[in-house]
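This follows on from our talk about sequence and fold. I would like you to pick a protein and set down its sequence and fold. Go ahead and set the record down below:
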Amino acid sequence: MEFQNSALIIVDVQKAFDNEKWGKRNNVNAEENISRILKKWRKMKWPVIFIQHKSDNPNSLFHPMNKGFAIKDIVRPLSGEVFITKKVNSCFIGTNLENYLRDHEIGTVVITGLTTPHCVSTTTRMSGNLGFKTYLISDATAAFGLKDQNGKYYDPETIHHVSLATLHEEFATILTTDQLINKLEE
C-alpha cells in the first residue's frame, strides 16, 4: 500500500490567517479539504501531526497571547495527537518532527496547511531532501497575494500555482484532496 507508514502533517492552520491584513487568498475551501483528509486519516488510525507557528514578538498575530495563535476549530487536534510548535518556516528546524517520523518508521508524509509559498513549501522541500516520500495536497493549502522587490503584485492564484510548480516531481508529488482520498481507498 502506497500510504502504509504515513503521517498527515497539518501546518499552521491558525486563526491569524483570518486577519484581513493578509489580503485576498485563494483556495477558500482549503480548511474544509484539510478537515476531509483529517477525518479519513483518523478513521484509518494513522498518525496526525499538527504544527503551530509561535512568534516571540508580542505584536505578532502568532504570539501566544494573541487570538491568532490558536488552531482553527475545523482542524482542532484531539487528545493524543502529535502537536509541535515551531518558530521558523520549516517544521523540521528546531523541532522534533524528523526524530518523531524516524522513531515511528514513517517514510511517507502528506502535507497540508498554510501558506503555500512559506511554511508549506519550506517544509515540503525539507521533507523531500530528508528522504521522505512527500505528497503535497494542492487544494488543502492556500496562498495570499504578494509583491516582489520591485513592488509588482502577484495574485494569490499565481503565487499558489508557481509555488506548487517549484515543488512538483522534485520535492513532492502534488495531488488534490479527491485524488488523495481515491488513492487511500484503492
